[in-house]
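Many introductory courses stop at the sequence. We go one step further.
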Amino acid sequence: MSAAAGLASRVPPTFHRRRAVASSSRKRTTVSTTTRARAVEDANARATTSTPPADRSLSERTRGTERASDAARDAMARDPLRSFDDAWWNPSTRALTPRRVASDPVPPVRLLTCYDETVDVIVREVDATRFGDRVEFCVYVLEPGASARRVLDAFRRAAARGVRVDASVDCSVVSAFTRWCEGTESWARELKELEDAFPKLVRFAPREQPTHAKYLMCHRLNALPTAVFGGVNIGDRFRPWRDFAIRAEGRAAVGALAMRVNGPAGGAADRVLNDLRKDQRGDTHDVRAVRDKTLNTATLTVGSRDRNAVSDKIARAGGVKFITNTPTGFDVVAYAAPWARSFPGSFDVLPALMKLMRDERYDEFIVAAAYVDGAGVKVLEMALERGCAMTLVMPRNPNVYHDANRKALKELEENHSARNGNGGRLRAYLCDDMLHAKVFLGRNTNTAKTSISRGIKKDRVAMLGSCNLKRRSFGQFAELNALVSQPTLCAQLEAALETLVRDSAPVTDADLAFAEPKATIEEWLG
């Protein structure tokens, strides 16, 4: 058998027919989204034959790659702008590479229930990035320790591979005052040294605006983006603390998160896309010129391609809604009298919490809260006053705001405690470990009122993130929370919170003592 005949025998029967379809479709002025998606699927199918990959020769594998690249170029020629969603110009192979996408637009998020697990996932996700990818990291406190060194070393390895790293740490007077009170130090200087070592890839942006949000996003050119977010700071001091975080993946979820913390995509990437749109208005279209611009666009838009309202809408439909506080400036009056008004900006966490507490679908709540003041008491009372049962867990000896916590707890106990025999439905517990969580789980115990969406029973909902039940958190700090209705996450959180309750002790009258004016001063400071 000749070499040509042998090659022909290895080509699937549908190969020539699909190539003919791709060729004819280049003459069309518009192509449907389904056709574009099918072109990439065809490219993947043609990239491999029925022969197992391990048994194929190098020349065969090379021809398969070329066929996949040809199909991707065909899709790009039909609609270069739209094809960005299906393929990327890969600088390392000088070829268009079909983009990997998830079958589920919003894969289930996963609960992380301790500090070590969260750090392990962060390091693993950063180590999984490759050349051309981008990492975004934001944390309120970065303190010394072996675990913090692991995270920083992962950033260094990523930068050495050609990964862009954008890191930020709160360097405002608020966190500086907290460190002074606790006698701790910041490792923000380590990020500055990393920026100096990789000036073209690492950017360190100290936040002067109080920024309490904690998240990591790994944006990937040719793989699924992932994110880790919640209430966990970085530093060995936090290892024994009880806290929660979430790992999410997929373009919709990570794109929605990026949009909420960074705003919709824009700037240089939009200018490149606008240039491409102008190019398409002519009678002829130079595919090679578009390809070259795509190389630049890939660099500019990684991490921002999905930073838009469409991703946010898809994420919400998939049971993940991100909620943020975004201050845009400082207000002297607001700082002096935080009860009077908020800083400039948008503050959506408090309205979302109020809506959750008032939601008639949920008649029972489990709340784990590190810090609570009078403003937080009013939020919880929205559920208690409509007759909801509530289990509240707080730390017995928090690292800060001890007396403010006890003052808030006493107010809740006096008005709503189930142990007082006055019809209250609050059961409060104190955890001997340092509890740093900001978590809410709403449950519907009345099956007759359970709603069903897309065949899934919606009898539980969870909200967790970085925002404390405190006035300044509601109206002055940058915060990131998520409202999650995915059944798997809600079940995981429910089990974790029930374990937390079992490990805690019911509140007694002796636990309600606090000192004034210390409690009021702590409320103002926090």
